[in-house]
Amino acid sequence: MPTRIARALLAACCLSLPAIAAASGTIPVKDFARHASISMPRLSPDGKYLALRMDDGGQHALVVYRVDDLSHPASMLRMPKYELPANIVWVGPTRLVVAQGKEFGSIGKPEYTGELLATDVNGKHQDYLFGYQDYGSRAATRQADRGWGTVDGLPDLANNHFYMGAQLWNSDDHSWLYDVDAVKNTRHLVGDIGVGGLDFIVTPGGQASFAYGTDNQFDYVVYRRQAGRWQAYTGAQAGHRFTPIGYAPDHLRLYALDSDHGAPADLVEQNEDGSGRKVLAKAGFGNFDDLMWTPPPRQPFAAVGGTGVPQVTYLQPDMLVSKLHQALSQKFPGEFVDFIDFSEDGRELLFSVRSDRDPGGYFLIDTQHYKVRKLFAAAPWIDPSQMAERIPRRFKASDGLELEAILTVPRGASMENLPMVLLPHGGPHGVSDNWFFDWDAQFLASRGYLVLQVNYRGSGGRGHAFEQAGYLKWGTRIQQDLIDGVKWAEAQHYADPKRVCVYGASFGGYSAMMTTIRAPGLFKCAVGYAGIYDLAMMYKKGDIRESQFGRSYLGTVIGKSDADLAANSPDKLADRIDVPVLLVHGEDDQRAPFAQAKAMRSALEAAHKPYEWLVKPGEGHGFYGEQDNVDFLEHLQAFLAKYIGQGVAPAG
Length: 652
Known about the structure:
10 helices, globular
């Protein structure tokens, strides 16, 4: 075992020890620059093993422990640098499938490479199930695997099989689904359709019955297989967006999400043809962010709201599993309890606990004797008592639309006339800020700044109509929502109007420039991190344009008019920026290529605008290296202090 990973494992697996309290005074910058050492824990079907992802600054591994001996790993599968287990799935009591991924930076989620690996719990019998490399037990007959394979489902009970979705590079207008034996490395086709980018629902008998998703033209579609043919689904009510989830325990009815004309989606149960629909949980202001499931035969027992402080809707409050969740929630007041995995017999449960101040911890409970064991903390160096409270609020945009804001308040501070940083999220579409722990917001709050995050129209979590309302409005209405949020915070006397800056990453970096352009005088400084600054360049450089889906996405959300793209690109409007700017970028960024930052810098220079520049070689879409992150955060806090002053002192 490499020395660094061994040290990290020992640190992360001091299982019963609480996080060490930070010393009095400011929390060190390095505490916000570190990576969570352990993530993605998964409990084996028999409850005897725990698999998880280990991260030590770019060196990743799949680590397996025996539940009855957490002192030493039973096995470890090391990954190449910056490659990682993007998904971990138990397909049998001693067999795992790993979907391989790659880190392209710290901002976005790891991206699948399309490769699927299998291993026994002891690290033996490793095999290559799908991917473009010519090795594994079936290498001689698998040269056609030039594409992406994903784990798309599992049988009701683990039998070493799984359902694998496949998308081939040279056939992006087709989707396949296979039943794969992960021990023998054999597969047989159970579903295929001449539409790219779709997911499948499989009947209890093992055949694909529904195909759904966003196709390569960026249109949402649903098909049902009847009489051996795929047909457009007609079981949804007019104007409804129907997303099947899976079959109920009776193997006849379906669970699905059902959205009425783009509104947040209800959880429903219905027959395959759409008849007999029963609403299990009604959505409110926002979508359900999560569903929690019983042991086999699996059925959802709780739906979790995605806006505000998370609220749990119990579908059947009198079920034992619902009562267990309620009891554990009482045991961890102020935290959210999430059920991750049950053993198939229901005796062992892996669950997590997290909050706005707590990055999270993982626990096991023996449901027969109600004995709880703490496993590990996601970030054991973080002391939740030293972190800031996050407060969801709602306000009206200037056109009357109700929006959600999240305020992160410096610990011990009175929320009155504070120096403030607007922190727009990336995406922009399908992404949203929530109540849970946020590294950027907590860092800024630890430096004494009030942090404002706004789920502007176009964000995820409020239904498709809300998301679609941001299409073709990147530089206009979305920016106005952010500006309205700042004006609201000032009107409530939360923020000092003379001490407001904006900092964002990716699309947030774009917004950091555009809000200053759209609202002169509102901000005192702006920080763009890995930002997009020239919209037309997105059609010429960067990884989004490389697929038909990506090109359709760009045409849908930013448009194709050269005049409109220029009118909403910060590098074409730099003469209107009236504040000092800090530009931060990685030279190897593939999502927002380095050329974007250079274009913005050139525009600022041509307009004789003040700016500062921080660039790191070898970094992608967001800095990954710990020292690079420390350097960035130190630059960020110095830049903010220079233009809006030091934040309020933390409470003792």
